[in-house]
Amino acid sequence: METKHSLLIVEDEKAISNLIATTLETQGYHYEKASNGAQALMEITSHSPEIILLDLGLPDMDGVEIIRRVRSWSSVPIIVISARTEDQDKIEALDAGADDYLTKPFSVEELLARLRSTFRRISYIQSENGQVTTVFTNGDLKIDFAAAEVHMGEKELHLSPIEYRLLCELARNVGKVLTHQYLVNKVWENVNVSDIPSLRVYMATLRKKIEPDRENPRYIQTRVGIGYKMNRL
Questions:
Q1: Residue positions of the PTM 4-aspartylphosphate (predicted)?
Q2: 31/204 Cα distance (integer angstroms)
């Protein structure tokens, strides 16, 4: 099988590290390994992986600190794979700059799905790199940023200003989980009424307008207790 892509596995538990490595090998991915934070930072700077698979509970430093350090110089996608299941742990990692969060124990199929989603987002960003992007398309959804218009197929959608800003923020980060607080800060800016219950209300009204099947949403995925993600169709 032709080798594709390069990833870094940052995991101190050998059994899990080997499981991830075997999974990547079967899909033709190239990878490097690190078992602690210092080694991980060295690998990141020397090998420039396309995606980092990061455990938070490392022996020498917390994984969130690694995320913060990496984000000071790089936008490389980081998928956290951790036994920490509390919402606050997920929020802290995502707010620090992680792109996704997978809890242990995890299925091989889910890990591969998260990787495919992240690589699609990388591909989208690279295709737009160096270009002035005025139109975003995803499935039947089209956003014309210059005209501030949204269409679903041939039909123009009429969104409130907050609904429009929410949709644009999700579109600009397609495939990435955005926390509630991140969206609140981005969408409401300095407006006083900027709480998470309000965000949920506006997200519900936005979904009613863009989801063809409200019982089975395709575009906007909810991460319960964490935030939202726009899927790349």
A1: 55
A2: 40
